[in-house]
Design brief:
Belongs to the PduL family. This protein has 201 residues and is mainly β. It contains four helices and 15 strands. The chain starts with a strand and ends in a 10-residue tail after the last strand.
Amino acid sequence: MKEVKVPIGVSARHVHLSQDDLERLFGKGYELHPLKPLSQPGQFAAEEEVELIGPKRSLKVRILGPVRKNTQVELALTDVIYLGLPSIPPVRDSGDVEGTPGIKIKGPLGEIEIPKGVIIAWRHIHTPEDIAKDLGLVDKQLVKVKVEGPRALTFENVLIRVSNKFAWEFHIDTDEANAAMVKTGDIATVIFEPAKIMQKI
């Protein structure tokens, strides 16, 4: 069994928009305006926000860029409860939105209702190809990640995602971070186990 350190990145609720949906919400030909770069190369938090409309309440949510092929909304369970969504979205890897619930999204110039795309993100480690090769990690392998401190815990079923577009980082949502009392930039320990086949939760 191996152990290796990894920085933590805490991901708050956010939206990825397709170009078509961006234009329906902000106007024809609209382009996102980067506010600040994210830890993953080429990705950024945009100046633009949208409003998620739930049965009970609404939430302002930042858009992350660049635009994607399909619109996707990533929420923590706390956000789901606050909005009053009728069902709890499944825990999914980014981009895996088949069979997920939809939601109404409001922008300054329009409103859309996506039929699917709301997920609770599967906790994962962005892993560059060179690091994966050096450590013996493979794409979609499941590992454990341990965090220390007054609320120390071990995260099970952490998904390894391998790409030469990634920077080495362990991504969790705000609920998971609050449970462990950790923040972006803290250091965790990856614990290697025999590779497991990813199963949808």
